[in-house]
Amino acid sequence: MAAFPSFPWLARRDRPPAGQAWCRTALAREISLEEAVQSVARQLAGCGPADLALVFASASFASDLQRLLPLLRQKLRAEHWLGCLGGGVAGTDADGTPHELEQEPALVVTLLRLPGAELHSFSLDTTNLPDLDGPAELWIQQLGTDPVAGQSLLLFVDPSAAGINDLISGLDYAYPGVPKVGGIACPHSASHGSLLFGDGVAAGAVGCLIGGAWRIEPVLAQGCRPIGPVLEVEQAQRNVVLEVSDGEHRRSPVAALQAILVDLSPSEREQVRNSLFLGVGRSDFSLASLSQEPAAFLVRNLIGVDPRNGAVAVAERMRVGQKVQFQLRDGEASRLEARQLLAALEQRLEEPPLAALLFACLGRGQGLYGAPDGDVSLCREAFASVPISGVFCNGEIGPVGGTTHLHGYTASWGFLVPRSPATPALPAAV
Predict the structure, then answer these.
(1) pLDDT digits over 88-99, tens only?
(2) Fewest 10 Å CB contacts: which of 28, 49, 97, 146?
């Protein structure tokens, strides 16, 4: 693994060198908002003006959320401010150690200086989105920037927002090939939204299109392992699968699962009772290709079984001809998948990332791994010194098979890296 470059100013906490890219992140665990802001300000003292500030606060600060950005902006300088409320946060402490803090007061602030970056932050009213059947230019007008300006996109959505799936599809339509990562913020009982933008609180959706000399490299860890063969959907109605086939054998999904159970261990059969999901093929790959590329599956919840005919209801609209495969989720499978994906990214990159952003499901963390700091520790194995920050979400946004989706139980990573000179500009939407 390539050595992480030495930045003496990270240890001294003094001003970063002018004209160089830098990332500074602070983690505060104080109970009061004022004390948490004071803590991050002390940790970030000496920074010059940043291009982008990312702010993630735990749900403990929901009632004070409207005061957060004004307090931070009195002490820190950045051109763009963006963030959200979460069920927990991930952050890097003053010693460089990353932590995942769940169900406790915590505040994470990350400042980024990105020479050569083209940044465009935006706030969207999701109650007034363009029609998906209309021209892509209407979506581009909503964001106010041309697709060729962006190489990647951060996106945070309020839990009360309307048309979340339409929003994600519309952004893919208008900005094809642009990786999009982020998540749905945490709900709360206060009268304001859960998003942070500019100098205040917002609802709907907020984000930042990143282009120029920088881009986000996405990594999506769904945390499942397949069981049984890849099946093909033979009959389906809306989100209900009525019949599947394995070669020449056609049967109900429940009958197919019963045949798979025969070859499972007792512990795996017990997992089926509580941790069974369905992987839905998101491409026209062959069965052989899907078996070799689990990332081509979109993992979805099984939400019901009809004992009369063996049909299953899936949290996804299904169609005849789709490839599907039953999946089990557990801590070991999640750990193995994340480790493989992060190691593969480390091998692909020419230099370590400037920052790592984690958008993780509330169902991960200690509940999945049985110990704290599960996902951030796996990131540390691949990237020994990268600053990590992020938030626990009510739904995670990230790409599978080249298309952006809303996920559950997933870790959606975004690694900020320099754009390769060989990376072509993206074509404008037509």
Answers:
(1) 999 999 999 999
(2) 49
